[in-house]
């Protein structure tokens, strides 16, 4: 993942206090790769990288964060901002019925999404909803809309393949008016590729209906091609929103970025399954994490720091400052803190579902077991050993001490060594933060 690759790079720039032209170059290359792998279109990637670079240069690196982490958080924020901040529900501010026109390529998910939206409008906004199909090219398409509309609990207006799309639309509108429908959803035909006849037809439908929402439905799996499709629809129609479908698939969803950039329209919903309830309000922040191939790091950082005991952190900071150093007792206390935060399970919940599934329960169990085992090893040390780690690190009797500890904790001596290694790494980090940096950092994060 991007985070892994960046942390590898970061080893070489660790300890640098700000992001500079020289240390940012390699990191930006990784970000660029991650975006391309997520199928963001090349010109969009270029623009994006430039914006991130402008924001990142000169940025200070605080506390225990390293330049890579700071850059990732800038990238994450910029991605979320580009894909639209906050959420945008459907606009129904029109003389009823509010008309919603669906546009997009064949197979993008228009018909499915029409029914999903009908359900959403009925359940969340208590609307009376009518659907109609203006797809006269495939008789099955009209039947398909009839079926899914019934599943949504909405009403369906009959149409036949021998009618003109414009006549269908006008008849449905008339019916909707006379029967006091709040919303009329108009499903349309798609083609396998952009063609002029299709565009002319939907332009005509738009002019006839004057919809309050013109939604561009796009398949997240379409990848790099999404940008061309989006451009064509944007030229033909004044799009008011985007629905990104099939986000339950493997696609990393970079299409969101391209489509948003090209159309300027907000991404309003995401399709997350074939089923009628597989529609979610689009969450840009969460989606940014998916595009980057990592969890929502902002939420993670908040979660991790929420449970941090500031008093304990201050005590620790003072200890470091006074020169008494970070010892194994502190290490043990830190593990306790982590448990207090709800353990790793809580953190896993913050990951996007596809990542959490990848990490899986097995990894989680292993990590939790690791933590418990570390705790067991630390507890098997004497208080004196914990307060004077040197006894175990370079004392004369360190070998026999370690054997005793391993036996007490029921593990191999190598495992004791591993814990001591981890401790030493931590200690080095703490030394760097001497001077209260740790406390300041935790305070800042904990609010
Ligand atoms: P249309 O040609 O644009 O009307 O597309 P359809 O609504 O007929 O959908 C094409 C195919 O994509 C169907 O098999 C749908 O079940 C499937 N589909 C639509 N939206 C989603 C989605 O969000 N997730 C998944 N997995 N499949 C979807
Ligand atoms: Mg269809």
UniProtKB/TrEMBL annotation:
InterPro entries found in the cross-reference section: AAA+_ATPase, P-loop_NTPase, Signal_recog_part_SRP54_M_sf, Signal_recog_particl_SRP54_hlx, Signal_recog_particle_SRP54_M, SRP, SRP/SRP_N, SRP54
Supply the source organism's classification: Bacteria, Pseudomonadati, Pseudomonadota, Betaproteobacteria, Burkholderiales
What name does the UniProt record give this protein?
Signal recognition particle protein
* Class in the EC hierarchy, top level: hydrolase
Identify the species of origin: Ideonella livida
Instruction: List its EC numbers.
Output: 3.6.5.4
Catalytic activity, as annotated: GTP + H2O = GDP + phosphate + H(+)
Which Pfam families does the record cross-reference, listed alphabetically?
SRP54 (PF00448), SRP54_N (PF02881), SRP_SPB (PF02978)
Give a GO cellular-component term.
signal recognition particle
* Similarity comment text for this entry: Belongs to the GTP-binding SRP family. SRP54 subfamily.
* Written domain comment of the UniProt record: Composed of three domains: the N-terminal N domain, which is responsible for interactions with the ribosome, the central G domain, which binds GTP, and the C-terminal M domain, which binds the RNA and the signal sequence of the RNC.
